[in-house]
Specification:
This protein is of the alpha/beta class and about 350 residues long. The chain is built from twelve helices and ten strands. The chain folds into two domains: about 10-220, Spore Coat Polysaccharide Biosynthesis Protein SpsA, Chain A (Alpha-Beta Complex), CATH 3.90.550.10; about 225-310, no CATH class.
């Protein structure tokens, strides 16, 4: 569908699975947008609970809500891909059922497209929060607002924290020109999609908060399994380094930065698994570091730490205390953000 009488139509894609109450909040955050020309498309991954009735109740009072339920669970990533493939409007955004859009997101993002018609996506800031609304991070604050021509956007994503796609508005053409999410990349497919887009097309960045990404205890973003970063991360590296449409120097730099980031992530994942007493995952991370990257010192550190903590509870509790201290320092660091952005957390009460 093309333009409406007043402005372009936007699709909000919300894949969902067994979170009917959080889904209700997510849908409300879309309906509360200051930009009204939109549709909400919910893709239910065969939840088998009250999700259909929750959506139906809301759809009876707002015809902009559309609902589709898969006959069987096709997996989270395939559900995201399916939702993207159904987009017919000029613009779309996609986010998880537990996240929340802030009221001015679409209006702010569209202003970026109006100022720079050549861009493929308009990026706003995402507030990373916990379930209580405490701000844990704002990745985009390290960026400068404005236009990024390719491959400047890619380099910025590599040198700073990349945007969270929860608060990114895309043109529909990006799916045709860049492709959809790469299943082989796995849970980091959203990052891969952003990197491939910024490597080839202009993007525009605003530091205005556009959405909240909610971290839950035990979720993949807070408790990553080895599969979260390996081997899917290697596929992401290949997607960039083997794409001849990206300048050679940018491809080479991307490969180096992402590989170094992978090594660090493996160490953090190994230590995180140790804290959760997932000894097997710690040893797997050690094996990858030693065998594939020849980082024998780091591999030995993880391996010995896992064995010691497993057999000496006192040492394990020391590790756990250090981890808890790190989390406390992160919360204290968030106080400055809460003073400036804390009012946005009220949107969690939608």
């Amino acid at each position: 569908m093309g333009e409406t009488g007043i402005g372009p139509l936007i699709t909000a894609v919300i894949p969902t699975y067994r979170r009917p109450m959080l889904l209700r909040r997510a849908i409300r955050s879309v309906l509360a947008q200051t930009y009204p020309h939109l549709r909400v498309c919910v893709y239910d991954n065969a939840s088998g609970d009250e999700t259909p009735s929750v959506v139906d109740e809301m759809a009876r009072t707002d015809c902009r809500i559309k609902y589709y339920c898969h006959p069987e669970n096709i997996g989270a990533l395939k559900n995201f891909i399916y939702g993207m493939e159904q987009v017919e409007t000029p613009f779309f955004s996609i986010f998880s059922d537990d996240d929340v859009l802030l009221p001015d997101f679409y209006q702010t993002a569209l202003a970026g497209f109006e100022k720079f018609p050549e861009v493929m996506c308009s990026v706003t800031a995402t507030l990373q929060v916990d379930c209580r609304g405490n701000i844990l991070g704002i990745p985009l604050l390290a960026w400068k607002p404005g236009l990024y021509l390719p491959p400047e956007g890619l380099l910025a994503m590599l040198n700073c924290l990349p945007p969270v796609w929860t608060s990114v508005l895309f043109r529909r053409e990006v799916i045709e020109k860049v492709g959809c999410l790469d299943e082989e990349v796995g849970p980091a497919a959203d990052l891969d999609f952003e990197l491939r887009t910024a490597a080839r097309f202009p993007i525009v960045v605003s530091l205005q908060p556009g959405a909240m990404f909610v971290r839950h205890p035990g979720s993949s973003c807070t408790s990553p399994l080895l599969s979260f970063i390996w081997p899917g991360w290697l596929k992401m590296v290949r997607n960039l380094t083997e794409d001849q449409r990206i300048p050679y120097d940018a491809r080479r730099y991307a490969g180096h930065v992402l590989t170094e980031r992978l090594k660090s992530s493996l160490v953090r994942q190994g230590l995180g698994s140790l804290v959760r007493r997932n000894w097997e995952d710690t040893l797997k991370a050690s094996e990858v570091l030693g065998n594939h990257y020849h980082l024998r010192g780091r591999a030995r550190l993880l391996r010995v730490s896992a064995r010691v903590c497993r057999h000496l509870p006192g040492v394990y509790y020391l590790f756990y205390a250090l981890y808890a201290l790190r989390m406390l320092l992160m919360r204290l660091k968030g106080r400055r953000w809460r003073k400036e952005y804390g009012a946005y957390a009220r949107q969690l009460e939608l």
